[in-house]
Design goal:
Blueprint lengths: L4 E8 L3 E4 H7 L5 H8 L3 E4 L6 H15 L9 E5 L10 H9 L6 E5 L5 H15 L5 E7 L10 H6 L3 E8 L4 E10 L7 E2 L15 E2 L5 E2 L5 E2 L1 H22 L9 E4 L4 H11 L20 H7 L9 E8 L3 E9 L4
Parallel strand pairs: 4-5, 4-6, 13-14
Antiparallel strand pairs: 1-7, 1-8, 2-3, 6-7, 8-15, 9-12, 10-11, 14-15
Helix pairs in contact: 1-2, 3-4, 7-8
């Protein structure tokens, strides 16, 4: 299989910021300090009422093109990962091609994945490059989970933020994309789901209720079974790490930096300890953005100092689906 590289990454965060102090004012039993210590988030960016995933995708892509002096005519494929598209049809990627002024010869498609989406996107991009179908792929992740969350859902409101990222995947770059390990367990679909709005259940359920703890329960909003997601993560992600190492013929100690999906601090710390990963080899980057779903990993990568990148990075994405994916990136010398 031909080689593929990450050439550049940029991201966009909405203007509105919701702090822990603001959340604590709405939910007095959750102090700002408690949210920060348990979830690992101090503030998160929330999309404006009229700001969609497509709008954010456009801003992230334009930032990438401008900051890295990319010729639009060189982009010949767009991959857009989102679970909050503007329309059922057409795909947001097609509209993004037009908004960006990319060539009419450019392929474009959406794919619906959440927390593992960036890993799957890199796999798709590498496949397109290796087959000779494309040479420069614009991989975009964009999500507005905040629009799925009920205003009184303190748990999910503390965790999630909105964001979009844009990555140029090409035949040259500063991080080589190596081999993947991917997996799916659709039997866990209902543990993280928005039940209403699609073709199976098009109309609003109007069945909002509150449990004994005052948490809203409704098929019209995002539902997450935290304990089941936690159990899934602990069962599958350590295996994912070792399978990814095996597929790349590498040992655990060869990895210089682990970049996991930024689910929340508590779960990440549990995983880090279970895998016995040293603090200085493990990335935490959610304090000021929250869990941005498919955008957490590329945001973390974008914040790494290119002048002192570690040699081998292991990425792991996991969550809604249930779905998971891992890959190793090798940073290139003399970038």
């Amino acid at each position: 299989m031909g080689k593929a590289y990450i050439k550049a990454i940029s991201y966009y965060l909405p203007e509105k910021v919701v702090t822990n102090t603001e959340i604590a004012e709405l939910f007095p039993d959750w102090s700002a300090e408690k949210v920060a210590s348990k979830i690992g988030v101090i503030e998160r960016h929330i999309s404006a009422p009229d700001e969609t995933s497509l709008d954010m995708a456009e801003k992230a892509a334009l930032s990438l093109i401008k900051r890295h002096d990319i010729d639009k005519d060189d982009i010949d494929f767009v991959l857009l990962c989102t679970q909050s598209p503007d329309y059922f049809l057409p795909t947001s990627a097609c509209i993004l091609q037009d908004r960006l002024g990319l060539p009419l010869t450019c392929g474009a498609l959406d794919f619906n994945l959440g927390c593992s989406g960036y890993i799957y996107g890199l796999a798709l991009a590498k496949g397109l490059l290796s087959s000779g179908t494309a040479n420069n792929i614009l991989l975009v992740t964009s999500e507005t989970y905040s629009k799925f969350i009920h205003e009184k859902d303190k748990g999910n409101r503390t965790i999630f933020g909105d964001a979009a990222t844009a990555t140029l995947v090409s035949k040259s770059g500063y991080m080589e994309i190596m081999e993947f390990d991917l997996g799916t367990d659709g039997s866990g679909a209902e543990n993280l789901i928005v039940k209403r709005g699609g073709m199976r259940n098009r109309n609003s359920a109007g069945n909002l209720q509150f449990d004994d703890a005052g948490n809203p329960q409704s098929e019209d909003h995002l539902y997450m079974n935290g304990s089941e997601i936690f159990n899934f993560t602990l069962e599958f992600i350590p295996k994912l790490v070792y399978k990814t190492l095996e597929k790349n013929n590498m040992e655990f100690d060869n990895i210089d930096l682990f970049v996991f999906h930024q689910v929340n601090k508590y779960m990440l710390e549990f995983l880090r300890k279970k895998l016995k990963i040293p603090h200085d080899k493990f990335v935490y980057h959610m304090e000021h953005v929250g869990n941005t779903v498919s955008s957490t990993i590329p945001i973390a990568l974008a914040e790494l100092d290119k002048s002192s990148l570690p040699r081998h990075l292991l990425l792991a994405g996991f969550g809604v689906g249930l779905s998971w994916g891992g890959v190793i990136l090798n940073s290139c010398e003399n970038i």
